[in-house]
Amino acid sequence: MPDRVLTGTRARNRRLDLGLRQAHVARIVGISGSYLNLIEHNRRRIAGKLLTDLAEVLQIDAALLSDDTTDAILSPIKEAAAAFPEAIVEDARAEELVARFPGWAALVAAQRRRITQLEERTEALSNRLAHDSQIANSLHEVISTATAIRSTASILAETPDLDREWRARFHTNIDTDSARLAQSSQALLGFLDMEMEAGDTQTESAMEVAEAELAKSGFYFPDIDAGMELRFDDVEEPSAREILRNWAKVARNDAERLPLEEFSQAARATAYDPARLAAWFNVPLNVIFRRLAHLPTDREHPLMGLAVCDAAGVVTFQKPVLDFRLPRSGAACPLWPLYQALTQPGRAIRRVVRLPGGAHTPFECFAVATPVGDVSFVAEPRITATMLVRPAKNEDTPDVVGPGCRVCTVKDCTSRRHPSLV
Amino acid sequence: MGQRVLLIEDEPNIIEAISYILSKDGWTVHTHSDGETAMEKVMQGVPDLIILDVMLPGRSGYDILRDLKAQDATADVPVMMLTARGQAKDREMAIGLGATQFMTKPFSNADVLESVRALATP
């Protein structure tokens, strides 16, 4: 059994399959019979016009005769065989398959590549569905409402002597919950639609990979406070690795300006008030936001999230907290203070907001937009907005901000740019 | 007065339905719907049993469970977790943190009642 079927062997096998005589083929391509014999026994290399002519006579794509193409086809064919061990394939004759039936072999290889691609996409979408907090919240709303309906309906059906007042009350509850169920299931569909649309064009973005990597450590790395450089060499995706390295660089600079122990004490002393901390340490607000959001989680610091966007409103970093997460796909609601800060660079904004519907946590948001890098006479300033997000105390009445127009239930919103699906 | 159960859940109509069936069964039902202040509510009067939702505004049920098990006064109180998630890892997490029972929404009233009665039996 040959380890490798070379171009000459493939040409010979093909010629024999077609029932052509060696001398006949040699005459058509303009070489001697003995030279073709050397080629067919892999003692002469073949390329260029001769390869093209020979492929034409053998009624085969020239690329399928070349060794590079064989490698490209053989590898996925072997992968396909390995993926279906229950199929009894002639494993040792894979090269022969490529040599004798290059077209069919190329088809099997193409299908294998397509299957791999689809499996990767399915996995990415599945991860999204499992980890996307908006979908999780929407699903939670649907199931909770269904639970309330089921429980209430059971009481009505199984309690014949139910007091009239209670009966009326439970009927009203079912009416309210059924309307909510209709609304929340439509919202869920809207989210799934958005995810599927996003899945058509991309799988997991580099930012999502980076975010997931940071989330594994709770967005806190003691090495950064120890002044060490983090390289994230084990992250395979180069763009994600770059994002992580940039993040680590900024985090290290912040840690140098605001040493952990000193900053933690000051944060507690000021009740985590960003404005007072900025004055205390004489650093810009956006630095304070970042440092607060990246405090270690095991020291009883309150939960805090962060979002950063560029001047186009593209979210370039976020640390989610509870059900706060700006949408990955589609545009977010412009009412988030993060985007409002962009319209007034330098102005600090504080607002308490919540997402529409059910029992969403109110969030206290602090946002500011600032120029990044050196100021220059020849270049436009690069502006980014930074927003600190944390669960709000119950003192303020929250403004409602949407998750995104398509799945937002707020009526008569002057910022709506797309009709709601719910 | 019957045994006291504290229901920590944020869906008002689930609260109403569970409160009704448990009250009818002889339990004294207290309710609370905010995650952040749930521990304060528990400490105001440690109940005989706690029914705890996972997804609550302000603080997750898992965090509250962790606190309950860390404090002497509440470590032995049976906790039944309610969750809209029924995946094995959620169940493992709840049990790993010390939950006595784990119930997936949507549940039946009979299941709730049966579990509560079983947990109340020493």
TrEMBL record, chain A:
GO molecular function, one term: DNA binding
Source species: Octadecabacter ascidiaceicola
InterPro entries: Cro/C1-type_HTH, Lambda_DNA-bd_dom_sf, ScfR_C
Transmembrane intervals: none
Signal sequence residues: none
Domain HTH cro/C1-type: 12-65
A Pfam family reported for this protein in Swiss-Prot or TrEMBL: ScfRs
Protein name in the entry: Transcriptional repressor DicA
UniProtKB/TrEMBL annotation, chain B:
Keyword Transcription found: yes
Protein name (database record): Phosphate regulon transcriptional regulatory protein PhoB
Species per Swiss-Prot/TrEMBL record: Octadecabacter ascidiaceicola
Keywords attached to this entry: DNA-binding, Phosphoprotein, Transcription, Transcription regulation, Two-component regulatory system
Alphabetized InterPro entries for the sequence: Bact_response_regulator, CheY-like_superfamily, Sig_transdc_resp-reg_receiver
Segments forming domain Response regulatory: 4-120
Modified-residue entries (4-aspartylphosphate), positions: D53
Record GO biological process: phosphorelay signal transduction system
PROSITE patterns, per database record: RESPONSE_REGULATORY (PS50110)
Origin: domain of life: Bacteria
GO MF term (any one): DNA binding
Coiled coil regions, renumbered to chain: none
